[in-house]
Amino acid sequence: MQEKNKRINLDDRESIAIGIMRHQPLKKIAKLLGRHVTSITNEIKKHRIFVRGSYYAGNDCRYAKGCDVRHVCGDDDCPMYCYACPKDCHNFCMEYSTKKCRKYDKPPYVCNGCENRRYCDDDRYFYDARVADRQSRECRSESRKGIHLSYEELDDLNTILTTNIRKGQPIAHIFAVHEDEIPVTSRTAYTYINMGLLDVRNIDLRRQAGYKRRRKKKDDSGILSQNFRQGRSYNDFKAYMEGKSDTRVFEMDTVKGKRGHGKVMLTMLFRKNSVMLIFLMPNCKAESVIYWFNFLEVSLGSDVFHKLFEICLTDNGSEFKKVDELELSPDNTVRTSVYYCDPMQSGQKGRLEKNHEYIRYVIPKGTSLNSFTQDDMTVLMNHINSTKRPGLNNRSPYDLISDNDSNLHLLMKVLGLHPIPADEINLTKDLLSK
Predict the structure, then answer these.
(1) Which residues, 6 or more positions from 271, have their beta carbon under 8 angstroms from its beta carbon?
(2) pTM exceeds 0.70
(3) CB atoms within 10 A of CB 53
(4) Among positive and negative, which fits the CA dihedral 101, 105, 106, 107?
(5) CB atoms closer than 10 angstroms to residue 134
(6) In sequence order, what are the beta bridge partners of 270?
(7) What is the pLDDT of residue 152?
(8) Which of 199, 256, 287, 352 is the S-S candidate for 162 at Cβ 3.0 to 4.6 Å?
(9) What is the pLDDT of residue 45?
(10) Is 278 strand, coil or helix?
(11) What is the mean pLDDT of the chain?
């Protein structure tokens, strides 16, 4: 059974308490909560409440009442009966026999469901959901107070984070590269930055800034009637992908510079490894997109192009509407299959949309692209594709390229792509400063 990736909460604890009262086995309680039985056991033992029993003279020996044994410990000067002696006669008396009920040593480890609990005067344990939840929150809060690093460790952490954040590297990438050197989690690193303990500040972190509210776009419902979408809608894409691997798909879009001013980026992303390609176009016209399709097919060969760019998912921009010229080679053989997202549903190709933020680290929105060249795009691709990410198990897109993927290695050779050493990655405006 797969464990829930979250803490036990009050609802879970109430379910545990109810299950114990109903005499349900801990395995059944664990199964109902989607957790391992060990987690339930640890929760009960950690937060159960101890109630001391009432024994004759505080002695739990069943023979204590009426016992007249003395000097069992060898101290002949002791005036006390052994059952009342603070030295604890249990350690010396051979006839000691406890009257304690020890059912709490076995599952469910508490007395909640015991029929005799109301009349029992032995030591007892009880599990209360609200008390357990309060104890858990207090323990968690206490553990997070203060700085649990030495001055040397904090100084090392400051050096690693400050140096790389100022290069524009995401914190996730920094932790993936320096995991063995950093003694805290990324969440704790954010906390230290918020507390002002490091040389970097919130303003240096990209994700701390809020997003502007998007302007409402005009109704594009009329696009559904355009011919180039017929048989190539997102529903058609899902139907076509039934039984096919998602790794055969690449997503495509454009990234504009200063609105209405010259050059535009054509971006493509392979779903199988998140490698992103960036091509600079003189304008945002269909002919410019077709040019790069033809360039790639000629450079790679028709067979390799078809294997790499088999299924395309893009949006409804006018630059992608000449679908026949995109799908067909100059000799009219099929080189790719193009499908279109639903209007206003860019999240259907969300991997590429998310990847565009790396471009904006280096080239902020509203910046003209006229001063850039395709060589600049190659540099940008290499730094972006070398950045490690949590969503890729702390690996980079280049790390996911298989050694035996000869087609992709040929593409990298044609485009001049190669990995950048992790500590040399720069995702700031300085990378392509003009």
Answers:
(1) 246, 247, 249, 250, 251, 351
(2) no
(3) 15
(4) positive
(5) 13
(6) 250
(7) 86
(8) 199
(9) 95
(10) strand
(11) 87
The CA distance from 26 to 36, in Å, is: 10
Cα Rg of the chain (Å, integer):
34
Please provide residue 122's backbone torsions phi and psi, each rounded to the nearest 5 degrees.
-90, 175
Dmax of the chain from CA atoms?
114
CA distances from 81 to 75, 84, 138, 145, 313 (A): 12, 6, 44, 50, 89
Prior bond to 108 cis, omega within 30?
yes
Identify the weakest region by mean pLDDT among 41-45, 78-82, 219-223, 402-406: 219-223
Distances (CA, A) of 212 to 209, 215, 312, 354: 10, 9, 30, 16
Query: Are 101 and 120 in contact, with CB atoms under 8 Å apart?
Result: yes
Q: What average pLDDT does this structure show over 219-244?
A: 74
- Provide the 3-class DSSP secondary structure of residue 279: strand
> What is the pLDDT, as a whole number, of residue 39?
93
End-to-end CA distance of the chain: 56
Name the pairing type of β-strands 49-51 and 124-126: antiparallel
**At residue 385, what is the residue type?**
N
Q: 3-state secondary structure string, 55-91?
A: CHHHCCECCCCCCCCCCCCCCCCCCCCHHHCCCCHHH
- Greatest mean pLDDT among 61-70, 123-132, 213-222, 228-237 lies in 123-132
* Residue 155 CA: distances (Å) to CA of 172, 183, 184, 197, 273: 20, 12, 13, 10, 36
CB 125, CB 113: distance < 8 Å: no
By DSSP bridging, strand 264-270 and strand 276-281 are: antiparallel
Q: What is the pLDDT of residues 301-354, one digit of tens each?
A: 999 999 999 999 999 888 998 999 999 988 889 999 999 998 888 888 989 999
Edge-to-edge strands, sheet with 311-314: 276-281, 264-270, 249-256, 311-314, 337-340
What tens digit of pLDDT does each residue of 34-62 get? 999 999 999 999 999 999 888 888 888 88
On whether the CB atoms of residues 282 and 262 are closer than 8 A, the answer is: yes
Say how many CA atoms lie within 13 Å of 201 toward its Cβ. 1
